[in-house]
Amino acid sequence: MDGAPEPDEPLRSAAPVEPDWRRTWVDDRPALYGVLGEGLPVVFLHGWGVGLRTYRQAIARLVERGCRVYAPNLPGFGRTPELPGRSRNFAGYADWVAGFCDAVHLEEKVFLVGHSFGGGVAVKVAHRHPERVRTLVLVNSVGGSAWSTGGGLRSITERPLWDWGIHFPNDIWPIPQATRVLPVVLQEAVPNLVRNPRAVWRVGQLARRADLTPELEELKRRGLPVVVLWGARDGVIPRSSFDAMCAALGSDGEVVDGSHSWLLADPDRFGEVITNHIEVAKVARELESRPPRRRALDRLTRRV
């Protein structure tokens, strides 16, 4: 369509590989997004500084598993305008995502996936708009309350910016990982920085101070299925933050081999990890679609 970005090289995937690039309107402001696949509706929220193109390989793995993926460029990134000043917080981003779902006519609950900053937004979406979310998947997400220092645990809000910076190189190296991750990240990070450096800075400040454990505790109380994934070599989101999120949810989470952007470095591994959770969501969706009398019969049959 006019004004939409041109897709780059195809994904290495057996599924249909090129997203349908579209533009919609959320609160009377344009929003760029891609949609790909058929099946279980998935909304994929990207991390800080980048956009949906960075995750094409990971999105392809979701499509291969029978999903229809909606991947918006969040406000402030990839030609989607920044939120108004009063809404530049997690609640504002969550309400924007709910508005996006309305704009693209997503009328049923979605399988919501968020990476890094996008994970924090996803938590807030599930908390503020429970009618929107079937399953929540957090991948190396911001939102844990703890930060580990030589003197013990401290609040994540006290973590200085320089401490984030010194750990970032660990997410790029070793060399084989750098050749896979760095090109796709820079493809969008550099244009975003040039286009709107203030927006990138503001979102970074929001992400690094995020404590969403009260929201996670409430999601636990509601019984929402929440999956927490974390890369064992992640220096951006520390283990203590991951542990705090798991504690708030009363779950163990799942640790995978990799760094903060492991799903970019190894999308096949991401597909393997996510498969069972997708299948569970599909079963729940199928059961909900049956008439009430049929659902009652199914429950009785399982008891017998």
Summary, kept brief:
This protein is α/β, with parallel strands linked by helices. Helices cover 44% and strands 19% of the residues.
Written overview of the protein:
The chain has eleven helices and ten strands. An eight-stranded mixed β-sheet has the order 1-2-4-3-5-6-9-10, sandwiched between helices. It has one domain: Alpha/Beta hydrolase fold, catalytic domain (Rossmann fold, 3-Layer(aba) Sandwich), CATH 3.40.50.1820. Strand 5, helix 3 and strand 6 form a beta-alpha-beta unit. It is α/β, with parallel strands linked by helices and 304 residues long. It starts with 19 loop residues before the first strand and ends with a helix. The protein is 44% helix and 19% strand.
